[in-house]
Amino acid sequence: MSAAGVGALRERLRAVPQRRALIGVAVALVLAAAGAVALMAIRASAPVVEIGIGGALVYDTFPEIVADLRSDGGARRYVKLAIVVELPDDLQPRLEASRTEIIDALNAYLREQRAEDLAGEAGAARVRRALKEIVNDALAPGEVKAVLFRVFIVS
Fold it and tell me: HSE-up of 58 (CA within 13 Å, CB side)?
């Protein structure tokens, strides 16, 4: 073999790893593109679920309520309560129409409670659930999102 033939053979052998590297890069790009297309197809075919909550939320403030608590013959105890009701704006007219009945039911509920029933975080949570139930009963089948305390004092 001549020197020129050996040199050409060496050049071909050096080019083999470069070709393999180029082929490897090309395969990686093709696989990445195929993966991206498959991912977009999966996302495009995923079902979309929309849940409406009845419109924008509004906050309706109730007047302060002072109620005497049930006692076991001891000193008279009172609760002072002011709430804000968070509800969908389409329920606000029904809340306005029922406000007097709701306040009456809130007072009746509070007068049946003892100071011990209202104590601590557990007592506040129990009152919050009861008040939400009273308001929801008045707005049925609609529901308020939350009942929030502005004032909650037991004396």
Answer: 12
Residue 78 sits in a domain whose CATH number is 3.30.479.30
Q: What is the pTM of this model?
A: 0.61
User: What pLDDT does 1 receive?
Assistant: 61
Q: Are residues 101 and 148 both part of a single domain?
A: yes
Amino acid at 9: L
**Structural domain boundaries enclosing 139:** 57-154
**Is 139 found in the same domain as 65?**
yes
Q: Which of residues 49, 68, 87 is at a domain's end? A: 49
Distance (Å, whole) CA 80 – CA 64: 7
Quick one: CA dihedral 70, 74, 76, 82, positive or negative?
negative
Q: Of 149, 153, 67, 61, give the one whose Cα is nearest residue 112.
A: 67
pLDDT tens digits for range 18-43: 666 566 656 666 666 666 555 565 55
Contacts with 136 (C-beta within 8 Å, 6 or more apart), sequence order: 142, 143, 144
Report the distance separating Cα 154 and Cα 77, nearest Å: 7
